[in-house]
Structure of 6-phosphogluconate dehydrogenase:
Amino acid sequence: MHFGLIGLGRMGFNMRERARRAGLEVTGYDRNQDVADVASIEALVAALPTPRVVWVMVPAGEITDAVVKELCEKLSEGDLVIDGGNSRFTEDQRHAAELAQKGIHFVDCGVSGGVWGLQNGYGLMAGGEAEDIEIAMPIFDALRPEGERADSFVHVGGIGAGHYAKMVHNGIEYGLMQSYAEGYQLLAAKDIITDLPGTFRAWQKGTVVRSWLLDLLVKALEEDPGLDNIGDYVEDSGEGRWTVEEAIANAIPAPAITAALFARFESREDSSPAMKMVSALRHQFGGHATRPAK
Amino acid sequence: MHFGLIGLGRMGFNMRERARRAGLEVTGYDRNQDVADVASIEALVAALPTPRVVWVMVPAGEITDAVVKELCEKLSEGDLVIDGGNSRFTEDQRHAAELAQKGIHFVDCGVSGGVWGLQNGYGLMAGGEAEDIEIAMPIFDALRPEGERADSFVHVGGIGAGHYAKMVHNGIEYGLMQSYAEGYQLLAAKDIITDLPGTFRAWQKGTVVRSWLLDLLVKALEEDPGLDNIGDYVEDSGEGRWTVEEAIANAIPAPAITAALFARFESREDSSPAMKMVSALRHQFGGHATRPAK
Amino acid sequence: MHFGLIGLGRMGFNMRERARRAGLEVTGYDRNQDVADVASIEALVAALPTPRVVWVMVPAGEITDAVVKELCEKLSEGDLVIDGGNSRFTEDQRHAAELAQKGIHFVDCGVSGGVWGLQNGYGLMAGGEAEDIEIAMPIFDALRPEGERADSFVHVGGIGAGHYAKMVHNGIEYGLMQSYAEGYQLLAAKDIITDLPGTFRAWQKGTVVRSWLLDLLVKALEEDPGLDNIGDYVEDSGEGRWTVEEAIANAIPAPAITAALFARFESREDSSPAMKMVSALRHQFGGHATRPAK
Amino acid sequence: MHFGLIGLGRMGFNMRERARRAGLEVTGYDRNQDVADVASIEALVAALPTPRVVWVMVPAGEITDAVVKELCEKLSEGDLVIDGGNSRFTEDQRHAAELAQKGIHFVDCGVSGGVWGLQNGYGLMAGGEAEDIEIAMPIFDALRPEGERADSFVHVGGIGAGHYAKMVHNGIEYGLMQSYAEGYQLLAAKDIITDLPGTFRAWQKGTVVRSWLLDLLVKALEEDPGLDNIGDYVEDSGEGRWTVEEAIANAIPAPAITAALFARFESREDSSPAMKMVSALRHQFGGHATRPAK
């Protein structure tokens, strides 16, 4: 199989490599010509056998929009576009409809695995028509870990379902990380704990909380036992927000995932206007001293 | 009526004044001799008519313990001690039992009103025996706002009930302040809002959220429209913690009050170990950049 | 002054009455002809002096959209439409632009006060151009409580700012109600509290938590001391959701308001899929018994 | 090595079996004579070689207190008691001091692994003196999974540190389960998801959220794809509460773990007094209809 891959960043670069190791032929395009196989999307399209399969792996939002638009112009009826990026599921219907006007097929695919995917394989969640997914199956099989397909690949449902599942996956990820992190802070604050890294390490094999994230936590503490070189500023990439927005839209309580999202927001505040106000109120009613502003 | 008042700090000093304005005779004692009427608790006890009534208004915990212990030694059978401080309700049984061994009566009384109590009167919540509360009623009537007694005084229940009610009152207070503060931050962040202080001011008369705390919020913004001179570090005085501990002990969800408590904890962290860990984990799995530690 | 009022439901009906008591002339229209003054919007438009002022007080969303559309057709250049309903602030720009195409002016106005507004007056938050707001000032003055204008009316900012302020107001309202409600549950669960309604009643005059909502809480307990006739199912009207969505959009932590929103979602679940899963997991790892499904 | 094991319930029964399979000699006692090797603690003490090692695996609180008390009477100087149950870390100092009066040593050990421990081995976290832990090492090595000791056993710190680590472990566990459960509910509510169990199954190998709990979640859905036979009532065993209490005691925000705890409290309420109050308040200010009580 020979397919095109647009976007050779942190994720796409490794995915090309993993696909090639599995014996697939990949033509990769990126705006960064140092990593690209071809000079343009036009050249990529020209290089592929028909019906063409093009995997898009670029940042969600405007960049994905632009790539889909260009593919809509350059691809032909019967070709297939797979959006493997982190697009919001609501975008998928729009992209699918745009491409369908020219008879181009569309599949959305959530991809998890991070920088370890090259080595371990990626977890894949696809949305779209069964026949389109069947066409792309050699790619899915190349990217996912070895072993039973159903342990690392799923056809979740119709268009958008793959990204929806990935969005929720990431929301869960927020909650898991926050839970471990709160536990870390509790242990780190307690003076009777004399082997903090060792405690997490000893959770890796027999306990209920063992997980891949725990393994990474142990690795992080091996590299920097007190996390002395790591700031407490945490970005969010959008999918946590979307998960909470979906919780709201569907009237579903999601307090743990939301707590994780808000903790990131807080981590980025130099100064909290809300807490200034609480301090001001305490001063007003109780005469409690306020601290000077930072 | 003539009663003793131990503790002439921010609260007690004003309470003595308010009681005197109401025509009561008050003998006040404080370790700070500049404000005290007598030089010692012994002198205070000697100055009071029997059966004596002594109102204790000192910091909860060890200081209240010590004062109760000294009163236990110096007072006589039939006297009455009222703990008007912010003692945890669990302490009241202990203090009552200690005093009861010598036939001294005990009432716990939650007092709310802050620095405005001198002018407005205090809200009072008492726990104990009906006959003891009846004895102290002239004091309660002097301290509370004018108007119907039931609008500002309540005999909540048995020993400890007054402090329990005050504890929950303060827990609610945490939640109310946090709610206003979150709304403040939302409005302050929105550029289409051009009159932020005016918005809060206009909520004071006709809206659902009008309250005394809102009036104080308006006052705070009049004094410092951007809260530029106020830091975002917020203390907690204990009763918020006890409220959440009671929620846990009684298996009652209290997410809003707890959110308010945790927001204060966060406000006091120079750096969050938990968020350092989340950042470390994101780096481990996704190669996301971390910030240098502060 | 003579203005038109479209929508004579729980809010609009009382607002017409309050405006009339203040000496204004009001022509009201509602689909319910029992309460309407005229038979159609067309008739309402015909009845008003030019430039016309029409206050829209109908449910947000499709119904407001339809009314604005019809007004756009029937009104003339220089007329003014005021949306006093609970429209999302994002709708205001759209409505204003639609009307502006015909030279019709637009003001958005958040209105708070509930069923008590007829008697107490309404708190008002307006967004739009200063000259348009000036035109409508006699209406604002009629609807708001007596006393200083700035205590119950504010020109918050540009188009949408009035509804934005009202949205945040309602978000705060969610947090305030949740805080009182958590405190209520804590007090109700404690056996040493023997006078629960009396405790809330005694908070009304001197305490830090006194507020209009507390007065209503006292009234509710007077009517039904154990809330025995009231179910625990709580609707949400949209503005709480929008507030949390704005918190997310602006990366502002809003844990107390969000807790209040999620508590309502929970209150409406017959059975929680999430908690079924937690129970299933506990059974899987620990052999803990599950309960049969309801 | 030959040691005594008191408590042969869900955990202890399997631990005896695992220790025996590893070649250790175990004398087990339980009040249930069907599973016990000896008829009394006295008989167990008599059966053991000196210095004796006795592992206590009974419910925390009164039962552990009683067993420790009896061991204190029946054991001799130089013997060692290991509390492997879920005692609160604050109990450990008390138990250690009680035993120390007779020269009996004490180690606390958190044990994780649930019903799968027999097969997989248990994660172990020990607190106490290094020499005492060395004595018990053959037991630890028998109970933990094969492989490197440090991946499943840790000497966390002094007396109580083992149970403290286990407490935090369980707090994290609450947060992890809640996070997966919220994600489950979000996916279950979305109609574009047509293969819900398959989605979780596909997360098992390549994704960031893969974990042992996820494997169990997949297993639960295999057994009952809609969780139709499982109620949404979730108990808590105490350690989640203690974790939040420690967060409060140390002024550490723990919003995700606390959300998980409160979700369990909510799951057990037939009717929420707090939400009845919110409904009552909405009725009071806005005339919103309330539902009849259940």
